[in-house]
Structure formats: C-alpha cells, structure tokens
Amino acid sequence: MLFLYNLVVLFAGFLLKIIALFNPKMKLFVEGRTVVFPTLEQKIKPSDKTIWFHAASLGEYEQGLPVIEKIKKQFPLHKIVVTFFSPSGYEVRKNNTVADVTVYLPLDTKKNAQEFLKKVHPDLVFFIKYEYWPNYLAELKKQNIKTYLISGILRKNQLFFKWYGGFYRKALNTFTYFFVQNEGSKKLLQQLGKNNVSVSGDTRFDRVATILEKDNSLDFISQFKDNTKTIVAGSSWPKDENLLIDFINSNAFTIKFIIAPHNIKTEQIQQLRDRITKKTVLFTEKEGKNLADFDVFIIDTIGILTKIYSYADIAYVGGGFGNPGVHNILEPATFGVPIVIGPNYSHFAEATALVNMEGCSVIKNENELNEAFTSLIRNDDIRNEKGHICSSFVQMNKGATAIILKYILNDTI
Question: What pLDDT shows up at residue 2?
C-alpha cells in the first residue's frame, strides 16, 4: 500500500502543476513549494538548533499558536520552523513573527522528506491536530526525532481504522506522545495499542482566551455601531448570506449588521452589496464617511474579524450550510456573545458542546433564523444568558497548553 501511496503522491504532484496553469490558488500551492529548500538553506545553518511545527492550514496554525509561543520562550536558542500544507494558511501567516522560518511543506515523497529533515534537522517536531504524512513520519522515526501530536482528534472513519490502512497505522509509531482533545480520540488510539496518549484538551481555548488580554478596539467599528445593537456575521458563505440578506432587508428593528464574508473577491462582494436594500458601506470605502449613518458594514478585507466580534451583541458564524461545516465559533464565544449557526456542525466538538449547553442556536432555514435573531434582539435576559454560557465555556476549557508544555519539558530534560 505504501508503494501505491507513493505513486499517487507523484501523480498528484504532476497533476497539480497542470491545474496550477488555470487555478490561482493551486498556482500558489505549486510555486510556493519551489522555493522551500533554497529558503531553508538560506535561513538555517547546520549548527542551528531547530524545532518544527506543522499546520495544515490557518485554523491549525491558530490552534497551535499558544504552544508555539510557549515553546519559543522555553527554548530561546532554537529556531522555530513552521510549515503549512495549504495556501489559505501560508499566504495569510507567512509573515508571522513567532517563527524564524515559515514555508510550505513539500509534498510527501521519500526524497522530499529526507531533504527537508536534512536541512531543518529538528530536535523536536509537533504536528497540530492532524495530517499524518507517512514518508515524513517514517523518516522522523528512522532518525529517532521526538515527535508529538497536539490537539489531536481521531474519528472511526479515518484510514487508520480501515482494513487497508496498515501503512497509515504504522506511521503512528513515530509519535513520541499523543495529546488529544477528547476521550473518544484516546480510546481509538488505545484500540490501536497506543498508550502513550493523554487527553489534554484543545489548545484553541487557550488561544481565544488570550484575545481578551489584547487591545480589540477598532475606532471605525465603534463609530459604525454608534451604541446600537449589532449582529456580526463572520466567515459567511452565499448560503448563509441568502438568509441573512432576507432578514436584513425585512426586519423592522433598530439594529446594525456587520458582514465579514469568507470570500472577499470584488465581484462577490459587489453582488452581496447589490442585494441589500439598506444603507451599506464597504471597509475599503470607509474613509471620509460618517459610518454611523450606515446600517450595514461589509468587511472586504481579512485579519480583523476577531476584533470585530468584540463589538457584537449577536454573532452569526458561517459555514454551517456547507462541508465540512461551521467555522470558528470560539472567537465570538470568548467575548461572551450568543451565537447562531447553520446545521452542519457535528464534526466540531466545541460547536456540539455549545449547542447542547444552549449558548449556540442552530437554524436550518429562513424562518428559524428570523426566530433566533428576533428572540435574541428582543430579550436582553436570553441574550445575556446565552452569552455568559459561551464565555464560561471558553474559560472552563483552558489549560491544554500548560499540560502539553509540562510533559515536553519533563521529556526533554
């Protein structure tokens, strides 16, 4: 099976180069990998000590960031290397300040794995949440490099638990220790004979909890809000926006709306704006305007949604009508904001927990969205109670980073 896997990876690499000729995102994926080895050679000397963190995309990077920051403090003489698989992670965080080197992870061939580890020569390696690359893991095992999974989560439908997944199960032998999010993941690993595992929780809670310690003020959002109840719709997709627009156009409440779409392409932003009948302004045209005069603010930029959630009285988090499902609900939750989402959330433990705790409301159609928003707008007690559930949930689940760090320090001394 490993032979077939390697053939598939090689074929995929060839195919991606062709697709890249026509797809801008895939072009980033392919071209970004052509400079990885020269970059590593330039920035890492043979005498340097390094620690390597791998994140699939932006969400996993944010999830692992508390651990990266703590490890950086504990090992100040080591260079931190961060790799991404996806352009949506690398392109947004390629200029982060926590890592000394940030690059794409070359495709999982044996040759790439050997070359990458030769140039990086890490003392410690951390994979965040998932992504198990057999050739990289095999080479790490061969070189006896301590490798950890942090905020890991496993499900029965993964390849490890299929009859034909033997080569994938073997890859798990690389990990020195597994830090997983829940008991279910621990039990699945134990079924595979892995007892070097503990439930540490999800480091994302540590990440979002620290947001409260930062300056989240945005003068232009404060001016727009103008002490008016505000619904913030974050990471919205067209299916979310169809429902939101109907409510925005038809409701009679004194309320404002901020929409931060997942896709900020000019054409799609303009289509969204054209369908809204109330007075609307874009982030890119805010200068020189009295934002308090507008009812709807469309954020056609990236990087400020977290701070915007601090101004929300109600949050709608998008993605719940698509696959794999709802986006990050923990950012509005940490600010004590009640949340509304679409129906596809079962793959996300934090969303499932908050739904069960009634801090998060699930809607399936326009009528249910109208009912959820109307209830939260009209009833301050319900809105405040649900918001308190959300903020308490984040605070109660902090601590994964401390558990991981304690083990790592004991294991490396």
Answer: 73
The residue type found at 266 is T
**Burial tier of 156 (Cβ tally within 10 Å: 0-12, 13-18, 19+):** exposed
Q: Could you read off the pLDDT of 89-120 as tens digits, one per residue?
A: 999 899 999 999 999 999 999 999 999 999 99
Q: Are residues 59 and 107 in the same domain?
A: yes
Backbone angles phi and psi of 146, in degrees to 5: -65, 125
1-39: pLDDT as tens digits: 777 888 888 888 889 889 988 888 889 999 999 999 999
Residues facing 152 on adjacent strands? 180
pTM: 0.87
SS3 42: helix
Q: Coil, helix or strand for 126?
A: strand
Q: Is residue 11 part of a domain?
A: no
Burial class (CB in 10 A: 0-12, 13-18, 19+), 325: middle
Spatial separation of the C-alpha atoms in residues 75 and 57, rounded to whole Å: 24
Residue (of 29, 33, 84, 34) closest to 54 by Cα position = 84
Q: Are residues 198 and 312 in the same domain?
A: no
343, burial (CB in 10 Å: exposed 0-12, middle 13-18, buried 19+) = middle
Beta-bridge partners for 178: 149, 197
Number of compact structural domains in the chain: 2
Query: Do the domain assignments include residue 47?
Result: yes
User: Is residue 332 domain-resident?
Assistant: yes
- Given a contact cutoff of 8 angstroms between Cβ atoms, the answer to whether 131 and 107 are in contact is no
Q: Which residues pair with 103 in a beta bridge?
A: 83
Report the distance separating Cα 332 and Cα 212, nearest Å: 11
DSSP for 131-195 reads ---HHHHHHHHHTT-EEEEEEE---TTSGGGSTT-HHHHHHGGG-SEEEESSHHHHHHHHHTT--
Q: What does the alpha-carbon distance between residue 173 and residue 51 come to, in Å, rounded to a whole number?
A: 20
Q: With beta carbons less than 8 A apart as the criterion, state whether 337 and 231 touch.
A: no
Angle at 23 between CA 41 and CA 63, to 5 degrees: 60
